[in-house]
Amino acid sequence: MAKLTIRDLNVRGQRVFIRVDFNVPMEDKNGQMVINDTTRIVETLPTLKFLIEQGGKLILTAHLGRPKGQRETSMSLRPVAVKLADLLGCNVAFADDCIGEKVEQTVGIMKPGDVLLLENVRYYNEEEKNDPAFAEKLAKVADVYVNDAFGAAHRAHASTEGVARIVAKRGGQCAAGLLMERELKFLGEELEKPARPFVVILGGAKVSDKIKVIDRLLEKADTILIGGAMAYTFKLAHDVKTGKSLIEPDHKHTALAAEAKAEKLGVNFQLPTDTVIATPVDSGKLNKKGKPVYDLTNIRTISGDIPDDAEGFSIGAETEKNYAAIIRGAKTILWNGPMGMFEDPRFAAGTNSVAQAVVDATQNNGAVSIIGGGDSVKAINKAGLGSKVTFMSTGGGASLEFLEGAVMPGVAALSDK
Ligand code: AMP
Questions:
Q1: What is the mean pLDDT of residues 301-326?
Q2: For the domain 6-182, what is the CATH code?
Q3: pLDDT score, position 397
């Protein structure tokens, strides 16, 4: 059922308790924590600006890192408050706790349009345990609950679920922020009745990680294109040799079952027809973790069996061409997982050409293109094409779970329209 969004609320003068995703990468520079990438903060700005204009009193809660219930100063949200003030162009107050009398007093003197960021909610173990007493303490300063942290909505924590339940029980409204609204629209509604042809591109390391998504999307897609190391388990299931490639022998049956389902449903299910391989040779050196470093030598493209001493690292040029042609004709595209080890430029061509084909379909064929989070978002940004697709999910694990059709506690707790 559709969820209430902040467009449906009247928040004037109300204390709006907002769960945001400010889990930004930080680095210690000469004893000071510096934010390396502000994307997550920037993405919440539309929600925050909207609520400020509507005259709400904004109380923001978030987590940073894994402090495991300790007051870990390197994981304080204080630098985020400074950056947020800068980006919003207004004052942002900071409370050095997320619960307690001081927080309540500070909130007590807030005026409409004021913004307060609370300290890292994971300084308390009770957060991840979704402890009801802790959720009550957080909810003391909430008239209305808003969740804009899609990336954390697959977890039932106090700030993502518990507080919402308490606010709702008191008769208060619980709504999706604008970022959450877009995630639900593109990963949810748009894929319910997609414009056809609907092409799904799935890659990444493991079949076992993606099987639930494959299974669900087989019921909706016209074509599924498989890439990444995941493809080698499918090959293995057909008795093709995979050499030293990353495989999951225990999941051969999973792969065959997916293919059988595709055939039954008439889905065009494609595996790579060629592979970029290399021969790993022990360099005699150790990496930072003490593991041997292998030089990847004799990089070449093959079709058929992968030699015993070689390993697959990406789809080959023939597959690239075939996949790109199918993608360019799509009207809806969902992409999750790279076509190979794209982090190494020697194996990035397959992923990059899929990214370019997704962009071409979006720009020239009017396709809705949805990039389902995690490494495919990294890959498309690395290729400089991020602004040329319809939507890139901000969730990693959350996007995958949502695409699997799982109930997300942080979404389920929001009020129905
Ligand atoms: P996932 O998180 O499952 O989407 O997997 C993404 C990771 O899989 C990336 O770090 C890729 O480098 C890696 N990957 C994809 N294809 C291969 C491959 N053929 N060999 C090794 N790693 C791969």
A1: 98
A2: 3.40.50.1260
A3: 87
Sequence-separated (6 or more) residues with CB below 8 Å from residue 215: 258, 261
Written as six digits, the tokens of 385 are 């094409």
Predicted pLDDT of residue 316: 98
Q: How many angstroms is it from 342 CA to the middle of ligand 1?
A: 8
In this structure, the residues whose C-beta lies within 6 A of any atom of ligand 1 are 204-206, 209, 228-229, 246, 312-314, 337-338, 340-343, 374-375
Secondary structure element (H or E) that encloses residue 226, with its range:
strand 223-226
Whole-angstrom Cα distance, residue 221 to residue 47?
32
Burial track 378-396 (b if 16+ CB lie within 10 A, e otherwise): bbbebbebbebbbbbbbbb
Among residues 40, 44, 46, which one has the least CA distance to residue 7? Answer: 46
**Average pLDDT of the residues in 261-283:** 97
Instruction: Report the predicted TM-score, pTM, of the whole model to 2 decimal places.
Output: 0.91
Q: Are 267 and 223 in contact (CB under 8 A)?
A: yes
Which amino acid appears at position 13 of this protein?
Answer: G
CATH class label, 193-272+313-403 = alpha beta
